[in-house]
Amino acid sequence: MQFTQFNLLDPRFDTLFRLAKEVTPYLAGEVAPVRDNGIALGHNEARFTQELFEAISLQYPEAGTPYWLTRTWELLCWQPIFVGFISVYQMQAIPPMEKIAQYKLPVFTTGFSFPGGRWQTGEHAELIHQLANKLKQLFDGYREEMSQWTRIRPGFTHHLLADALLENVARQRSIFPEMSDEQVMTEAKLWLDAFSLSYDHLESYRWDIQQDHLVMIRHTCCQAHRCDDKNWCGNCPKTPENKGLAVYSPS
User: Fold this and answer.
1) pTM of the entire predicted model
2) Can you tell me whether residue 129 is helix, strand or coil?
3) CA distance 183 to 4
4) What does the mean pLDDT of the chain come to?
């Protein structure tokens, strides 16, 4: 494992921020200390998460706690996971993810920053494990602080995490179109191993006869259909068409 000391001229931060904004303008990064209204390990976790939860509950009062809690947790995790996948697959190096800070609009998380630190390089599987250790530290901190004001079980967050990981693995095919279904499965196992998650989650990969390749169907429902202005998601596990898809099994 090699370490490179961060400095203001390190081009990898600029590259990371550029690649992130190519995914979505909401994924806007910068090198800066965490601001007072942000969330980072040891900084503002309980207040930030509670404010986000309350804002969602006020905007969607009809949806109830299942949606409010699921949406809050997924919003806390989406940016670090996306940044981590960009780092591993497109940069072959990872920034100090345990130091990431995030920011929010009333009902959405958008924007992140790093205060500095060291990047890590290494073999592909090793990078995934190193990133997983950093993200577990980050997400465990979020959950422990959230538990001060709500009940949030580790099993609940682990299922949501597995869905996010497997969805992001499958998404890599939009960047690397040569990636086969078998390679998707191989990569998925690396991520599940790194996070100590069961291979049972691989059943989220189903075979779509019309598309002639695997698709990812969530294990957990995001509960968005509970909102008056939202519908069932395309990869929802509760819709009849998705229930009918066979689990992918490599030949």
Assistant:
1) 0.94
2) helix
3) 30
4) 94
